[in-house]
Design a protein that fits this description.
The complex is a heterodimer of chains A (144) and B (782).
Chain A (H helix, E strand, L loop, with lengths): L2 E8 L2 E6 L5 E5 L12 E7 L2 E7 H4 L11 E8 L2 E7 L1 E8 L12 H6 E7 L2 E6 L1 H6 L2 H4 L1
Parallel strand pairs in A: 2-10, 5-7
Antiparallel strand pairs in A: 1-2, 1-8, 3-6, 4-5, 6-7, 9-10
Chain B lengths: L1 H27 L4 H21 L2 H18 L7 H23 L8 H7 L4 H18 L10 H27 L4 H24 L1 E3 L1 H4 L2 H12 L3 E6 L4 E3 H22 L3 H6 L6 E10 L2 E8 L6 H10 L5 H5 L3 H6 L22 H10 L3 E7 L3 E9 L4 E9 L2 E6 L3 E6 L5 E6 L2 E6 L2 E7 H5 L11 E5 L7 E5 L1 E9 L5 H4 L4 E6 L5 E5 L1 H7 L4 H9 L13 E7 L5 E5 L3 E7 L4 E4 L2 E6 L2 E6 L10 E7 L4 E6 L1 E8 L3 E3 L6 E7 L2 E6 L1 H9 L10 E4 L4 H13 L3 E4 L8 E5 L13 E5 L12 E2 L3 H17 L1
Parallel strand pairs in B: 2-4, 9-18, 13-15, 20-30, 24-26, 31-32, 31-33, 33-34, 34-35
Antiparallel strand pairs in B: 1-3, 4-5, 5-7, 6-7, 8-9, 8-16, 10-14, 11-12, 12-13, 14-15, 17-18, 19-20, 19-27, 21-25, 22-23, 23-24, 25-26, 28-29, 29-30
Helix pairs in contact in B: 1-2, 1-4, 2-3, 3-4, 4-5, 4-6, 7-8, 10-11, 11-16
Classes of the chains: A mainly beta (144), B alpha+beta (782).
Chain lengths: 144, 782
């Protein structure tokens, strides 16, 4: 079975995200902060007349916070009727993947463990397959 | 009723469409129980609805089909092919009749009996019948007059229009920066008008008559009162008020709940009523009306009223209040306890109004949609609940403020008052680590928006403004913000759950420049700041019984003090914003006081002819096209003007006087202001100059005032070089040269002299003014 995967870099690491989950890839500029929101909520940004909730993927993975001052690439996904933008370092490519998703056999950082659903072998090497939805919930979700 | 019939038609048609597949499937497998049930449900629903609408033919048909299907369901009859066909024939006929109902045509009822007979007749007979009726169905289809749309689609249209508005705003900003071409500007104006109309129309498509909500009440009241052995007559008023469809759904439950409560707990049994000297039948009134941007729904009964003392006792025994606190409560506050969780006055829980889940849920639901619920009760005489909800969920009037360099919006429905901290009547007192604002002697708990949000304030405490908020139920508090910006109508979008989880926000919106703004939730802020009920006792400590809030009616207006100390009001709708200006921004130029704000020059009224000696505040007023500044000293209050207006003796700045809180207040005549300033506003602040032969007495005394009145600056022919337009006598050959060459020639006789005569008759006022503006426009373009 072939699946389209979006290859992006988050916190310096290349990961694969099922393209079916992704609505679009956009440039985000001018993020309006949301005071008192969880650390992984970078703020709000406007995409035409829609208001995107911008998620700092790094913070969600407990790998530090991203700089939201400059223009950033983001992956737009829609969950429960609300559009979200996941900030990533870069979006590299969309590839066709027909191999198997393998279970993760090694010990990875807790942040990654929460969002990774498996490993995939691609032409450019082994990478984690990420469930974009679980990045939304942020570090607090596991504690709760 | 018309609406209901349409609803019935649409619903039945939808069911028929959905049933289409089921019918075919059932025909193929008559023993399929699930399909049978589906069809049975359909005829049963139609039968029920028909009884309600008095449609005997439909009722007879559906009743017959229902009867037969019931027999099949109970296994008394097998579902043979003949029976299936007969049932299908009846369903087809129902479809035809419903269609006919909509198009207004009539279908012969002659063979109805045959169709019904066929249900019991032999297979071959009913088969023929079925074929026959199918043919007529096809012929009977006519164009439908209405379609059903999903709210989703309307929402998408609405958001598309919001996009258009934003794009328009952006274009408008660009146009202002770029050199303007009149033709482009005119085209842009047209686009703006179209977009405004479009937005209006789409907003209206989502509107529905509140009748849709009220129509279920008579039945509910009848059923409830007979169940409880009470007599209640219902009076419904204002069903033609329209509001957002979604909003209607949101207030359905709260309204139902209040009505149920009124009958269950409010209205007494007939015996008690007679004993109390009341008519044995209770009266329940439900009415709706529109007031500005809000819809007011009143639900009043003439029952026993809310026993405030009983509520207090219960609150004390539930540890919601201490004895001391309870003692200080005013009557209105006692009644308002009904909105506290877990306080239900009924001694026993009944099946009608249920357990304590009551008015607190009602209040929460109404507040969630930006509304307010108030209660007014007189023991032994009855209760009145007033629901105040915004017209739509999507567009709400709001105030934009900033804290820590970020802009936020506050729903205007929650705002009581805006005061400047510099104001003499405001004092801030520190109290055990928190603050209390004393505004005109009234003590109100105070918090700072920047603190609540955890950001660094940008304005010093003395420069901040306080917004007095009343989230609901009377818990007034003040919040300090860095700056107050603007009153705006904002298109609100729901915020993502992770944002809502902070409890501080009610939604998001987009500013004109396309950046997101968070809409603050006044009760959330109070909760975060720890301003809960016990702290609010401070207000009660001020020992002033809190007067029940008068329902806001009439025109929302700003009450302010002029530079000369007079109190005046101005309708809030024309106030764009309030700004501080320094005296050096104000100049007496081109015949009147003008104030420079940014790169704009606005005519300034309210200051006489004197340039003020110190910093003043101005109201920026707009009629949509023209902006005018009005100097004033300070804002006193936001009020609603309901009283009668006594007109002024002569037209001028003040159109009349009205009573506000027992005080005479002058009403600023905005019409006059704009008319007075508009003439001097044309041409971007610079008046076009028109040269007249001022030595000609007719020109100087008769024509000059008209030209000046049309917004021109008049000079004599001697200064014609600087002029945009030159007016001369047609008879006069000695015309001074004019660089721009725009000359209007005026003749004294009404007849035209020859074909080449382009002069204008001196009393042709319209011709003259239009010639002037034509030339002036050419001049500006060139």
């Amino acid at each position: 079975m072939t699946e389209l995967l979006l290859i992006a870099t988050i916190a310096g690491e290349r990961v694969a995200i099922p393209a079916a989950d992704v609505e679009s890839v956009v440039e985000i500029e001018g993020v309006t902060p949301v005071p008192r929101s969880p650390v992984h909520v970078a703020g709000l940004a406007a995409l035409r007349s829609r208001v995107l909730t911008v998620i700092d993927s790094c913070a969600s993975l407990e790998l530090g916070t991203s700089d939201t001052g400059r223009s950033r690439e983001a992956i737009v996904i829609e969950v429960g009727g609300y559009p979200y933008a996941l900030l990533v370092d870069t979006v590299e490519d969309v590839i066709e993947h027909s191999g198997k998703v393998r279970p993760i056999r090694t010990s990875i950082a807790p942040g990654w463990r929460r969002v990774a659903t498996g490993m995939v072998e691609t032409e450019s090497g082994l990478m984690l397959l990420i469930d974009a939805n679980s990045i939304l919930s942020g570090p607090t979700a596991e504690a709760a | 009723m018309e609406d209901l019939i349409n609803e019935f038609i649409a619903e039945t048609r939808e069911m028929l469409e959905a049933l289409g597949g089921e019918i075919v499937a059932w025909e193929a497998a008559p023993s399929d129980r699930a399909r049978l049930d589906e069809i049975f449900r359909f005829v049963h629903t139609v039968k029920g609805n028909c009884g309600f609408f008095d449609l005997p033919r439909l009722e007879t048909l559906s009743h017959a089909a229902e009867g037969v299907l019931a027999e099949v369901r109970s296994g008394e009859r097998p579902a043979d092919h003949g029976l299936v066909s007969a049932v299908l024939a009846i369903i087809d006929r129902i479809g035809e009749l419903v269609q006919a109902l909509e198009t207004g045509e009539s279908i012969s009822s002659a063979d109805d009996a045959q169709l019904i007979e066929a249900l019991t007749a032999s297979p071959s007979a009913s088969e023929r019948e079925h074929q026959g009726s199918a043919g007529t169905v096809l012929e009977g289809r006519k164009a439908v007059r209405s379609i059903r749309l999903s709210i989703d689609l309307l929402d998408r249209m609405m958001s598309g229009v919001s996009d258009m508005v934003l794009a328009r705003n952006e274009l408008s900003r660009r146009l202002r920066e770029a050199p303007t071409d009149l033709a482009v500007e005119a085209a842009f104006e047209r686009v703006s008008t179209c977009i405004a109309e479009m937005r209006d129309a789409i907003t209206r498509t989502r509107m529905q008559r509140i009748d849709n909500l009220f129509v279920t009440l008579p039945r509910m009241v009848r059923d409830l009162s007979s169940e409880l052995g009470k007599q209640v007559s219902l009076e419904v008023d204002g069903g033609d008020v329209e509001l957002d469809r979604e909003m209607i759904e949101m207030i359905r439950d709260p309204l139902t709940h209040i009505v149920r409560n009124a009958i269950d707990h409010g209205v007494e049994p007939p015996g008690d009523r007679t004993a109390a000297g009341k008519a044995s039948s209770g009266m329940l009134r439900v009415s709706a009306r529109q007031s500005g941007n809000q819809i007011l729904i009143d639900i009043s009964d003439d029952g026993r009223g809310i026993d405030g003392d009983k509520l207090v006792k219960k609150a004390v025994s539930n540890n919601l209040l201490t004895e001391q606190q309870a003692e200080r409560l005013g009557a209105a506050q006692k009644t308002a306890l009904i909105f506290e969780a877990g306080l239900s006055t009924a001694r026993e829980v009944t099946s009608i109004s249920g357990r304590g889940v009551g008015m607190d849920v009602v209040r929460a639901n109404i507040e969630r949609i930006g509304g307010v619920v108030d209660v007014d009760s007189k023991l032994g005489q009855g209760v009145r609940f007033t629901l105040r909800v915004p017209l739509t969920l999507t567009i709400i009037p709001a105030l934009t403020v900033s804290a820590g360099g970020q802009t936020f919006a506050i729903p205007r429905s929650a705002i009581e008052e805006i005061v400047r901290s510099k104001n003499d009547s405001v004092r801030v007192e520190a109290l055990g680590g928190s603050h209390v604002a004393s505004i005109r002697g009234k003590r109100i708990p105070l918090t700072w928006l920047a603190d609540v949000l955890g950001v660094a304030p940008e304005a010093s405490a003395s420069e901040q403004s306080f917004i007095v908020l009343k989230p609901a139920g009377g818990d007034v508090y003040a919040v300090g913000v860095d700056f107050v910006h603007d009153h705006e109508e904002l298109v609100i979008k729901p915020a993502a759950p992770v944002v809502m989880a902070t409890g501080l926000y009610a939604g998001t919106t987009l500013a004109d420049d396309g950046s997101p703004i968070l809409l603050l939730d006044p009760s959330g802020i109070a909760a975060r700041a720890g301003l809960l009920l016990d702290q609010n006792e401070l207000e009660k400590l001020a020992a002033r019984p809190h007067a029940p809030e008068a329902p806001q009616e009439g025109t929302q207006a700003l009450l302010f003090r002029t530079i000369y100390g007079a109190k005046r009001v101005i309708p809030l709708a024309v106030v764009e914003r309030i700004e501080d200006v320094l005296p050096d921004a104000i100049k007496l130029s081109a015949g009147r006081l003008r104030v420079a704000i940014g790169d704009e020059i606005l005519p300034l009224a309210g200051c006489g002819d004197q340039v003020p000696s110190h910093r003043i505040r101005i109201l920026r007023l707009s009629d949509g096209a023209t902006e005018v500044a009005y100097g004033f000293a300070d804002v006193a209050d936001l009020v609603s003007v309901t009283g009668e207006m006594k007109p002024a003796a002569s037209p001028g700045e003040v159109s009349g006087v009205t009573l506000i809180a027992g005080e005479q207040v002058e009403i600023l005549d905005t019409y006059w202001l704009f008319a007075d300033c508009a003439s001097t506003r044309d041409g971007g602040g610079r008046k076009p100059v028109c040269a007249l032969p001022t030595d000609d007495p007719w020109m100087n005394t008769i024509l000059r005032p008209i030209i000046e009145g049309a917004g021109y600056h008049v000079v004599s022919h001697a200064d014609a070089e600087a002029a945009d337009i030159l007016i001369t006598n047609a008879e006069d050959e000695d015309v001074p040269p004019l660089p721009s060459g725009q000359v209007v020639r005026i003749r004294s006789s009404a007849e035209v002299r020859g074909k080449a005569d382009d002069s204008i008759y001196r009393y042709d006022r319209t011709g003259l003014i239009s010639a002037l503006s034509r030339h002036a426009a050419k001049r500006t373009k060139g």
